[in-house]
Structure formats: structure tokens, C-alpha cells
Amino acid sequence: MEVNPPKQEHLLALKVMRLTKPTLFTNIPVTCEEKDLPGDLFNQLMRDDPSTVNGAEILMLGEMLTLPQNFGNIFLGETFSSYISVHNDSNQVVKDILVKADLQTSSQRLNLSASNAAVAELKPDCCIDDVIHHEVKEIGTHILVCAVSYTTQSGEKMYFRKFFKFQVLKPLDVKTKFYNAETDEVFLEAQIQNITTSPMFMEKVSLEPSIMYNVAELNSVNQAGECVTTFGSRAYLQPMDTRQYLYCLKPKKEFAEKAGIIKGVTVIGKLDIVWKTNLGERGRLQTSQLQRMAPGYGDVRLSLEAIPDTVNLEEPFHITCKITNCRSSVSSSIKMGLLPTHNTHRHIPVICSYWIFVECNEESHALHLNWAVAHTEHFKF
Predict the structure, then answer these.
(1) Other beta carbons within 10 Å of 98
(2) What are the pLDDT digits (tens) for 247-259?
(3) What is the DSSP letter of 214?
(4) Which are the contacts of 39, defined by CB distance < 8 A and separation ≥ 6?
(5) CA-based nearest residue to 364, from 336, 319, 333
(6) What is this structure's pTM?
(7) Residues 209-223: pLDDT tens digits?
């Protein structure tokens, strides 16, 4: 008859606790009017309660802090901190104690131990303590693996480990939209939604542009010489609330006239988001490189640089056009001219209508043209 051997008890005990910020103690105030049967009894009990605020006993928030009662939620971008303690529960001296902590994610295994050196000996009722930190950069299932190895007085080598499984959740929902302007400017609209169950203090939301662009934030206004944010004095984002941020990217001077390069640029930059939650617990997220759909300008691009708002009859006026060769190396010969515009009720001919030939080559990617135009007006009855 086969008998399973009894499970051997270890001389050391392992305890793992997550380190988080405490929360403010909350109570449920119970009160009544003086003419009711209890009279002032309930009010007196709340005044005697040490957890209430003196003079504001009916408020739910108190002056005491509550330690975490469970593991809680861990969100992407936060720092995971844990306290690891190995205690000698026996009456023997244990030697060569090695404590190792690894974090297993869906893609990698990380060593979080501060030191990989073994402790020479551990006396009875003594312990080895360690605190580990890790900035969470992946969502999904995480497993904290704590392994302990030691040697008994008799020379027997012992080994055991424990597994602690937890989920990393997504704190923010980020959506982006791009708008390509005719002046090579790119406008980025970022919508950030708080999908947690607690408020967030948005400390910073900035855009780190690529090497070809300069960025300007459009999330503040100038009031009486002071820069005031458009979100008001309170930068809190309540659960399931959404906030929109707007940025303008302009090509740098050395790339502004190289339309062939600018039109093919799809990488714009990445968002850097920093927030704080309960009692200042900090979190940070950086998006991957944001990409836009490159505008299709073709080989040649014509843009209107300047035109007057109003003109006088029978008087010349000036318009300025800009022709850009969007090719990278091949020169282009372009035929340009002004044509009269006809209308069913009015006829506005261009007096100095003419055709010109210009050439855009690799050395000159942009060409400015000025026309002096006069017009007359004829009414049809």
C-alpha cells in the first residue's frame, strides 16, 4: 500500500503585503431634530466619536486614516510597491538565506529584488525585510513570484516559493484626431477620459513633437496679462469624464520650405500624461508615436498667400500666390495665368490677364508670384 509522505514544514515564513496610500476614514452620520424622541442623543454620540471632525460632525469625512483592507486596483502607469518579509519561526539558526522576487507579465519576467546576495544567517524570531518597486507598463495579468532558499543546521537545503496574481487595469481612454491645415500646420485634438472609479488630478498633459515640428499648446487664454487654463482653476477629472486638449504643430524653419519632405511625414509625436490620485499617488503614461495620414498634395502645390478683403472698382489690387514643388529632385515647368470669371448676372473681366512660365527645381522649392489685377463691372438688365 502506497502512502503519501507528509508535507514538510518550513522553518521560515514568508509574508507579502502591497504598499499603498491610506484613505480618509468615512462614517455615516445619524442625527435627528431636538423635538424628536432621542433628543440630542445622536448628536452627542457623534461629538464623542473620535473619528469625526470637531464642529463638523455631520460630515462623512473624518480626521483619521484607514489602512488598506484588500489588495485594491493597480492601474497602468502607476508604481507597484510591495513589502516582503521572511521571518524565522523556529528555534534554530538558519543559514544562507536568499530571497528573490520576480514579476511575470505576458511578455517578460523582471527581477525586482534589491540585492541577489544571500544573508549569512538568520536567528530565531528575526526577519529579513525588503521593499520592491516597479512602474507598471503593461496591462493584463501579472504574477509576483517570491522564492526563498535556505540551509538548515543539519546542512539540508530547503526551497519554497509563493505566487501572487493580480490584474493591471487601464486608467485612461485616449483618442486623437488630426487636422491638416493648408499652411503645413497640423492640429492635434486629444480626448482623455477617466475610466477609473475615483477622481484624478491632471498634473500635466503635454505633447512631445517629432524632430521636424515645434508645438504650441492651445489649452490656455491670456486674461489680464496672465495665462489661465481653459479648464478652470480645478484640474480634477471625475470618473467617466472627458477632457479635450488641442495642440498646433508647425514645421521647423529648416524643414518649412521642403514640401517634399513635410508631406511624407506621418510621425507627429507622443503624448505625456501625468496624474495624481488618492493622497498624491502618482501615475504616468506615454503614448506610442502618434501618426497622421499624410496629405496628398501631388507634384505641385498652389496656395494663396495674400488677398485684400475688399477692393474698389476700376482700381488695381494685388494678390500673392505661392507655388511649391513637392517633388524631391525632379524639376518642373509650370504654366500659370489668370482667367476671367463669368457670372449670369455680372461680368468681371481681368484687365491684365496673361500667361507665364515658371520653373521649380530642387534648389528652389517655393516661388512667390505677385499679380496686379484690375476689374470692371457690367450689369445685365
Answers:
(1) 18
(2) 999 888 777 666 5
(3) E
(4) none
(5) 333
(6) 0.69
(7) 988 889 999 888 877
